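Worked example

This section walks through a single chain of length 401. The input is the sequence exactly as stored; nothing has been trimmed or padded.
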Amino acid sequence: MHRDPIVSSVIHRLKLGVVCQQPAMREHLLELLQDWNREARVVAMAGAAGEAGRLADAEEPQILLVEGAHHDTSELSALEQLAARHPALAVILLSPSQSPDFLRHAMRVGVRDVLPVPIEREALVEAVARAQQRLPAAPARRRGVLYAFVGCKGGSGATFLASNLAHAIAAESGRKVALLDLNFACGDAALHVTQRRPTCTLAEVAQQVRRLDGELLASSMLQISPGFHVLAAPDAPERTEEISAESIDRLLEVAAGRYDVVVVDAGRTLDERSLRALDRAERIMPVLQLSVPSLHGAKRLLGMLGALGYGKDKIRLLVNRYDKAGPITLGDAAGTLRQEPWRAIPNSYRAAADAVNQGVPLLELAPRDPIARALREIAAELLELKKSSGGWLRSVLPSLL
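Given that input, the structure is written out below as tokens.
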């Protein structure tokens, strides 16, 4: 039998699910629920009660309305399994069966309420309101930390490091990580970690910023892995004019509420929009190479950052493509810039080029490469996870290095 895809309506705060085979009833329920609470998010799926677990597993609603049949014990068994998997979920069954035996059976398997069909608005609203009052309080969530990468010169490798470090943090720590490409004019961070084309970019998100929340943001991003999502830069330079500094503020606020770590590729142009990211950043990471033009660009960038009020304690210099045998040393860089480089990423051009050309994170393509090792070490330090702590890094290093 053909099933309609899961469809979504307005997004915010309370989340309700509807599983109903009859299209007319499904549409009627959506209308009633949205009229009752226009700030709620409602997700709906065409299906029988036995399929309700599919929507509950995928969408994790707080309240689930399920259309049931006459005295169907197999449906009640399915709902009992659903209640066991999602103990905090409030299930409201919509059924023509209202016999005392059926109602007692439904309550025993974990159904919160059984409403008669056809649905009356007042009964539905009362049942949903009762279920909402009994929902457990949402735990306080720590705000995600933000790291901003800035290239000191074109070709410095800031995008490569931002995208691959974001992937490394997600892959090695299990944290939820967002990579936001704020290189408005020519951003290509997504291409460094996937070959898939984005269906939505920063420009589309900016257009919906008034209703933007964590779930809308996540649905607008490329999912590289379950814990690593990428928001691509606009696909045409002229679309950057649609993006305001206020929309960037809202984007960063929502991202920090949804993800544990937010990595921003801020490009090389410091304007009102990119400065919003630098203001929020826990660390600003200028990326340079040990060449005269790159050092010149780094010195100029550090001067600008200082003039804007960003202290040296917030800035971490990253030297990319470092070669110990090169004519310019880390000491030379420190003397020129009056600041010690924080980390040096070794030069492993072939592995980096292969990863970029194939659109695959370097840790997946070459997990034992020196760059992969450096990325893991940087990720661990950023997250304050030391090898001696017995945390995730210590457990994975022996098998990966």
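What to look for: The radius of gyration is 26 Å.
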